[in-house]
Design a protein that fits this description.
single chain, 7-stranded mixed beta sheet, 25% strand, 7-stranded parallel beta sheet, Dihydrodipicolinate Reductase, domain 2, 440 residues, alpha/beta, Rossmann fold, 3 domains
Length: 440
């Protein structure tokens, strides 16, 4: 039997673990710092094992990797290069759903020399987005066409009936991860011009995005889109933008959250602080001024604005004691948002992923191609986020162990050998795109 080692037991791990346990010839070990989470995921399956493992215990980590056939790293991305190095040392394949960092990319030759595949970006976004993009790009090229424009937006949101708070958002994965993404700068190509957005202006640069059947959302650029021109092999494109989708009002609120310093990561002592004290500290505001009035003045918005209303609803103007006595502003905000922006029992989340291409063909023909994935969580079952992140990684793991993905080195899923069978199996699981083509 093949042994799969899964590092981490977070919010999106369950469908991944269950898929692999359902395979007839796999043993699955889930190793987590919090072993109770791993035990819950294994759920007494005879081919599963839960282990306690702190990634700082390098000897323990090395031993677990040496005893496995493939490693799936679902821990914070900063640990991936260390895990990858141990995989290279032991000639073990590795799978992650995270972006390829520079330290990870630098391991490409070592991975090839070790004869292993380190497959990254094999979740939802990044992951399914790459695979569907490449399917369409290759289809256009097979017809003699070229890609002249590509825009893509993806968001994990509450389904309409679960959209019950002023933020229009609930957490289906790490709140700190969601908030940290708001500290990234962004670069993209628009009509042949490179555009750079500094982190402090990220949420001031959003566009209305209409999704057929669901209405209007806000889309803002996600990190650096420019490398994907080369990764997707579409040097002919004049537009390349990959972005994030949120409900209306999110961007204006997150912009003020950024301006207020709520995403600051410097650890401080908050002993005895209430949320109101915390807010005053961030504003450097004297006690005598009304906190709402001070906040309105500090952020240069009206007291009755939607942004102030959202911050008040979150409890940031209250006398409640802070949940931590030591930590960063980001830790405090993340803890409060996780407490207030949770899915209720039986509530569904929703994934929206939409690609739009402009393709040009010989004889001056142009075509607009829109490919849209809308997927919902299962009430009292797996979230859509967990399924769309975890299942592509699980399917890829099976294909690697069966020898059906045979490349080596550091890769993302942009080659047919990887994306064709994974997209097909996802379609059988009803995680599928609807495609619309029209002449322009």
């Amino acid at each position: 039997m093949k042994k799969v080692l899964i590092l981490g037991a977070g919010l999106v791990a369950k469908p991944l673990v269950r898929y692999l346990l359902d395979q007839p010839d796999f043993k699955v070990e889930v190793a987590s710092r919090t072993v109770s989470k791993a035990v819950k995921l294994i759920d007494n399956h005879p081919d599963g094992e839960a282990k306690e493992l702190n990634l700082k215990n390098e000897e323990g980590l090395k031993k677990e990797i040496a005893d496995s056939d493939i490693v799936i790293s679902m821990v914070p991305y900063s640990f991936h290069p260390k895990v990858a190095q141990f995989c290279i040392d032991n000639s073990k394949h590795m799978v992650t759903t995270s972006y390829v960092s520079e330290p990870m990319q630098n391991l490409d030759n070592d991975a090839k020399n070790a004869g292993i595949l380190i497959l990254n970006e094999i979740g939802l976004d990044p992951g399914i987005d790459h695979m569907e993009a490449m399917r369409i790009i290759h289809n256009v090229e097979e017809k003699g066409g070229k890609i002249k424009g590509f825009t893509s937006y993806c968001g994990g949101l509450p389904a309409s009936e679960a959209n019950t708070n002023p933020f229009g958002y609930k957490f289906s994965w790490s709140p700190i991860g969601v908030l940290l993404a708001g500290k990234n700068s962004a670069q993209y190509l628009k009509d042949g011009q490179e555009v750079s957005i500094p982190a402090e202006n990220l949420f001031a640069n959003f566009s209305p995005i209409t999704i057929e059947g669901l209405g209007e959302f806000e889309g803002y650029p996600n990190r650096d889109s420019l490398p994907y021109i080369q990764l997707y092999g579409i040097q002919s494109t004049e537009t390349m933008l990959r972005g994030t989708l949120r409900n209306k009002g999110w961007c204006s609120t997150l912009k003020k959250i950024f301006d207020l310093g709520l995403l600051d990561q410097e650890e401080k002592d908050w002993e005895g602080f209430s949320y109101r004290d915390f807010l005053r500290h961030l504003m450097n505001n004297p006690e005598e001024q009304d906190v709402k009035k001070a906040l309105s003045s500090h952020l240069n918005i009206e007291e009755d604005s939607d942004v102030i209303m959202r911050l008040e609803w979150l409890g940031l103007l209250s006398d409640d004691t802070l949940p931590v006595t030591k930590g960063s502003a980001l830790d405090i905000l993340g803890a409060r948002m996780l407490e207030k922006l949770q899915y209720g029992e039986g509530e569904r989340d929703m994934i929206i992923l939409q690609h739009q291409f402009i393709a040009s063909y010989p004889e001056s023909k142009k075509e607009k191609i829109t490919s849209t994935l809308i997927d919902f969580g299962i009430p009292k079952g797996d979230s859509s986020m967990a399924r769309t992140v975890g299942l592509p990684a699980a399917i890829a793991t099976r294909l690697i162990l069966e020898g059906k993905i045979a490349v080596t080195g550091v890769h993302i899923p942009v080659i047919p050998q990887i994306y064709i069978p994974i997209l097909q199996e996802l379609k059988e699981m009803e995680i599928a795109f609807t495609e619309k083509r029209e002449d322009v």
